[in-house]
Amino acid sequence: MGIAYRGSSKIASELALRAHLANLLRLENVGLLLGAGASVSAGGKVVKDLWEQFINDEPEAAYWLFEQGFVLDGDGAPDGNTTPNIEVLADSLGIAIAEWTRVADEKLDEGVSARACLHRAVVKAALLQSEWWRSVSGVGYDEPGLRHHRTILQKITAARQPGQAAPWVFTTNYDLAIEWAAESIDMAVSNGFVGTHTRRFSPQSFDLGFRNTQALGEARFGVYNIYLAKLHGSLTWKEHGGQYYEQQAAGAWPELRAFLEKETDVLGALVLPSAAKYMQTIGFVLGELLRRFAEFLTRPQSCIVVAGYGFGDEHINRLLSSALLNPTLQIVIYLPEFIDLENQEGLPVAVRRLLALESPRITIVGGGQEAYLDALARDLPEPTIYDEDLRDLERRLRDDQIQPAEDDLGLPL
């Protein structure tokens, strides 16, 4: 077990941590917030590795960004020692390109080229495994790279009690790890897109669910789907004629391959939300997904489990911080960098602010690899089909078997 605290109190044992998580999974609303670190086991890259690959693969583009002031000295210089916020960088570059286009500035071509190089690094980091994209049948149920994702999804869905809603998965990742993991175990994913051959974004679908029509009463245990909100877009989302569509992975692969092999500098997927894209989509796709995230955090009796997220998105950080005004919200953070409450210098400012509250509604688990995604998969309790009434019945039946039988006069038979 890693180093775990609930508020200012240390959780003494792995059993105590699992018992705490078991109680949280029985709350009315359960959700996950996954960042880039959650996809490393499947072949993804964290932001630091993404930036280092960008510098190694495209040194000229990296130095041009540095020379033009898009990357500040000490905040992501091309020596690779520090890492900038990739999305802030892409946002600044997008604004500059829009202005250069308006005034026909001579830096336009270099800016467009640098943006394409940056986008390629992002796509490479989110691609996971290229063979998964080429297969029409998707990813197999025994794919080891997605084992931890499958375990987590199975545990949080099976822990749902009769009448409770399906869990939510919020992610800042562009990859398809969650979709592939869920589909490999025949779990339905509600991601806001509806349709069979043409999947168009329709946020009303988030208000619908799946259930077994033959199950009644306690037999309606568990759920059959998850809700997925990809807060920064996806490699399989495209815009056409003012509508937003989701492609099948094998159908999106030819265009992604052409972009990665530099046959084109145009990436059609809805990733890296720039300022222009923000204005185009705030009332629809990305704005709707962020609204769903904020709305989830305000629900009574809710728990959000954060894993693989480096707290580099200030918008999400503010939502998490302000959500603590909800007196019944529980936050669980798996953060490898966390060592101890007394040693927080290397932690993100947003995390230090949360820990400073010393709230028993905030649980943090650290200790290096003991806070990776596989640790979360291990720590989440196994689902149980027994509620309090069934456990009481089992106890009374066991007691009846132990006591000797008596006749009508109270004499032993």
Descriptive account of the structure:
It is built from 15 helices and 13 strands. With 413 residues, the protein is an alpha/beta fold. The protein has 2 domains: 3-45 and 130-379, 3-Layer(aba) Sandwich (Rossmann fold); 47-126, no CATH class. The chain has a 9-stranded mixed β-sheet, with helices on both faces. Helix 3 crosses helix 5, helix 4 (86-103) runs antiparallel to helix 5 and helix 7 (147-158) packs across helix 8. Residues 76-81 and 407-413 have low confidence and may be disordered.
Topology:
Blueprint: E1 3-6, E2 9-10, H1 14-25, E3 29-34, H2 47-57, H3 59-67, H4 86-103, H5 108-126, H6 130-134, H7 147-158, E4 168-171, H8 177-184, E5 188-190, E6 193-194, E7 199-201, E8 225-230, E9 237-240, E10 243-246, H9 249-260, H10 275-281, H11 285-297, E11 302-307, H12 314-323, E12 329-334, H13 349-356, E13 362-366, H14 373-379, H15 388-402
Helix pairs in contact: 2-3, 2-5, 3-5, 4-5, 7-8, 7-14
Helix content: 40-55%
Order of helices and strands: EEHEHHHHHHEHEEEEEEHHHEHEHEHH
In round numbers, the mean pLDDT is: 85
How does the helix and strand content classify structurally? alpha/beta
- Sum up the overall morphology in one term: globular
CATH topology of the largest domain: Rossmann fold
Query: Strand content of the residues, in percent?
Result: 5-15%
Number of helices: 15
Tell me the CATH architecture of the largest domain.
Answer: 3-Layer(aba) Sandwich
Number of strands: 13
Q: Please report the first level of CATH classification, the CATH class of the largest domain.
A: Alpha Beta
The rounded Rg comes to 24 Å
The main pleated sheet reads as:
9 strands, mixed
CATH superfamily of the largest domain: TPP-binding domain
Provide the low-confidence segments as ranges: 76-81, 407-413
Number of domains: 2
Spatial order of strands in the largest sheet: 2-1-13-12-11-3-4-8-5
> In whole angstroms, how far apart are the ends?
53 Å
